[in-house]
Amino acid sequence: MIYGIGIDITNIDRFKTLHNPATFIQKVLTPTEFDEFEAKKGQRAYEFLAGHFSVKESYSKAYGTGLGKKLNFQDIEINYDGVGKPKIVKHPFSGTVHVSISHSDHHVVTQVILEGDN
């Protein structure tokens, strides 16, 4: 049974003009994600940050709470399997989580499907 579906589109370029990037990055990325982010350079770093931001937005929509008091960025962690497929490895949902990320030059679109009962 589908519990929820969340979709988000984010403009990658907006992450290039953050007023306080260090604070924002610490808010959005878990320590494990931050370690991976630090290894990225240039456009790839912006794509990574925008992608993780967007996945967490999509997850919060699928979960039904949005990001805020009940769910925050640190409650959700994304990593990748051996072939680069994204997976959400830390989250409050007890069922199965499906995630997809796609980038263009200027945008990232993500979808999260939560399957099962919570």
- By CATH, the architecture is named Alpha-Beta Complex
Low-confidence stretches: none
**What is the general shape?**
globular
Radius of gyration equals 14 Å
Number of helices: 3
Count of discrete domains = 1
Could you state the order of secondary-structure elements as H and E?
EHHHEEEE
Secondary-structure-derived class: alpha+beta
Fill in the CATH topology. Ribosomal Protein L22, Chain A
CATH-level-4 superfamily name: 4'-phosphopantetheinyl transferase domain
Strand content: 25-35%
Function: Transfers the 4'-phosphopantetheine moiety from coenzyme A to a Ser of acyl-carrier-protein.
Binding site for Mg(2+): 8, 57
Organism: Pediococcus pentosaceus (strain ATCC 25745 / CCUG 21536 / LMG 10740 / 183-1w)
EC number: 2.7.8.7
Describe the 3D structure.
The structure is a single chain. The protein contains 3 helices and 5 strands. Helices cover about 30% and strands about 30% of the residues. The model has no long low-confidence stretch (mean pLDDT about 95). The longest helix is centred in the middle third of the chain and has 22 residues. The strands form 2 sheets. It has a 3-stranded antiparallel β-sheet, covered by helices on one side. A two-stranded antiparallel sheet has the order 2-3. The chain has a single domain, classed as Ribosomal Protein L22, Chain A (Alpha-Beta Complex). With about 120 residues, the chain is an alpha+beta fold. This is Holo-[acyl-carrier-protein] synthase. Its cofactor is Mg(2+). InterPro entries: 4-PPantetheinyl_Trfase_dom (IPR008278), 4-PPantetheinyl_Trfase_dom_sf (IPR037143), ACPS (IPR002582), P-Pant_transferase_sf (IPR050559), Ppantetheine-prot_Trfase_dom (IPR004568). One of its GO terms (molecular function) is magnesium ion binding. Keywords: Cytoplasm, Fatty acid biosynthesis, Fatty acid metabolism, Lipid biosynthesis, Lipid metabolism, Magnesium, Metal-binding, Transferase.
